[in-house]
Every structure is written in structure tokens, then in C-alpha cells.
């Protein structure tokens, strides 16, 4: 190989090395630019996001969820395909609550807490309350209502004594069955609510 050939080969190799160097410099510059852009974006991103209302939409643009605040407090509402509330979770000044609705938007199951009291209600399709479980003043109770929404059967405890009450369609107490100090007692009443028969231990008779 003569000198001319060697020089041409060296020049060719140097040209290839220069191209590689230019490529490496371009990659390095791009990487630095990305790092700088990322740092700038991090500085621009807020540490917290504040808003009074968030709306969640489906693929067709329909509202399917709303997270908002109002006069009563904070509310999270999930909507069905027709835009009617299906589940609502809220936190009011008086206490938190949750309710589930049917496809027509009628409340069917409600859970509420007020102070030291707690309540669970179940309603029919006409939004009439049919069952209520309640703890009030540390005393639990269960109430069943008829098709008209009238409370007919109540089961509760008074301190350590259980009590069952049954009323008629006019709201008059007709049957009362309970325990007092481990002694059973039963009272039957007429249509006016006046007792006409009772089985009460002698120690509790007046």
C-alpha cells in the first residue's frame, strides 16, 4: 500500500469518526434539552390542585360523576347512563351520609350519622321507607313499615330490656311484648290504644 492510499484511508476513517462525534454531540444536546424541559415542567406543576367542582364524563360526553362542594358540604355523586344519581356520598356539617338509588333515581338505601346517632334506612320503589335501623342515645332499634309507609313493628332495647311493639293502621299501639329485669310482660290494647289484657309480674303491677 502506497502513501497516497494510506492517506486516503486515514482521511476516510477521520471522516467516519467525525460523523460519530457529531451524532454523539447531537444526542447529548437532546438529552440535556429533555432534562431542562423536564425540570421546567416540574417547576410549573402545582403542588396542589384546588377547585369547587370536578365533572367526570364518559366517552360520549355524558356526565357520569360529580365531585363538588356547596352550602351543605362536600358531595361525590355517581350518575347512571340516564344521568340520574345512583350513589351519593356526602359530608355535611351535621354529619356524613351515603345513599344508593335505583335506576329511576329514587333513594333505596340510606346510611347517615348525626353526632353519636347512626341510621340505616331501606325504601321501596315508591321511595317509601320500609325498614329503619337506628342507634339513638346509645339505644338500638329496628322498625318495619307497611306499604303505606306507616311504622307497624318496632324492636328495640331500653338499657338492658328488649321490647317489641306492634301498631295498627291508625298508629295505635295494639301489642307490647317485653322483658324487664328478666321478667316477661305482655300487653294487648284495643282500637283506641287502651290496654284490655296484660300479663305483667306482680312486682310491677300498680
Describe the structure.
The protein has 206 residues and is an alpha+beta fold. The protein contains one helix and 14 strands; from the N terminus they run H-E-E-E-E-E-E-E-E-E-E-E-E-E-E. The protein has one helix at 3-44, and strands at residues 53-57, 63-69, 73-79, 85-92, 95-101, 107-114, 117-123, 129-136, 139-145, 151-158, 161-167, 173-180, 183-189, 195-199. Strand 9 and strand 10 form a beta hairpin. The protein is elongated and about 130 Å long. The N and C termini lie far apart (134 Å). 2% of the residues are buried.
Main sheet specs: 14 strands, antiparallel
Output the strand order for the largest sheet. Answer: 1-2-3-4-5-6-7-8-9-10-11-12-13-14
In one word, what is the shape? elongated
**Structural class category:** alpha+beta
**Series of secondary-structure elements, N-terminal to C-terminal:** HEEEEEEEEEEEEEE
Total E-strand runs: 14
Radius of gyration: 38 Å
Query: Low-confidence runs (pLDDT<50, min 5 residues)?
Result: none
User: How much helix is in the residues?
Assistant: 10-25%
Which whole number gives the mean pLDDT?
A: 82
Oligomer: single chain
Percent of residues in beta strands? over 45%
SS field, number of helical segments: 1
State the separation between the terminal residues, measured CA to CA.
134 Å
Amino acid at each position: 500500500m502506497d502513501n497516497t492510499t494510506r492517506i486516503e484511508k486515514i482521511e476516510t476513517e477521520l471522516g467516519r469518526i467525525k460523523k460519530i462525534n457529531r451524532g454523539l454531540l447531537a444526542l447529548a444536546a437532546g438529552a440535556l434539552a429533555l432534562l431542562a424541559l423536564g425540570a421546567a415542567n416540574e417547576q410549573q406543576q402545582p403542588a396542589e390542585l384546588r377547585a369547587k367542582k370536578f365533572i367526570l364524563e364518559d366517552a360520549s360526553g355524558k356526565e357520569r360523576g360529580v365531585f363538588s362542594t356547596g352550602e351543605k358540604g362536600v358531595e361525590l355523586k355517581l350518575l347512571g347512563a340516564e344521568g340520574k344519581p345512583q350513589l351519593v356520598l356526602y359530608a355535611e356539617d351535621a354529619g356524613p351520609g351515603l345513599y344508593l338509588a335505583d335506576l329511576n333515581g329514587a333513594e333505596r338505601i340510606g346510611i347517615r350519622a348525626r353526632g353519636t346517632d347512626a341510621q340505616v334506612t331501606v325504601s321501596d320503589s315508591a321511595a317509601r321507607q320500609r325498614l329503619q335501623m337506628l342507634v339513638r342515645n346509645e339505644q338500638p332499634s329496628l322498625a318495619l313499615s307497611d306499604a303505606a309507609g306507616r311504622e307497624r313493628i318496632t324492636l328495640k332495647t331500653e338499657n338492658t330490656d328488649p321490647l317489641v311493639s306492634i301498631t295498627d293502621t291508625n298508629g295505635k299501639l295494639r301489642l307490647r311484648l317485653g322483658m324487664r329485669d328478666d321478667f316477661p310482660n305482655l300487653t294487648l290494647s284495643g282500637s283506641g290504644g287502651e290496654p284490655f289484657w296484660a300479663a305483667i309480674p306482680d312486682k310491677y303491677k300498680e
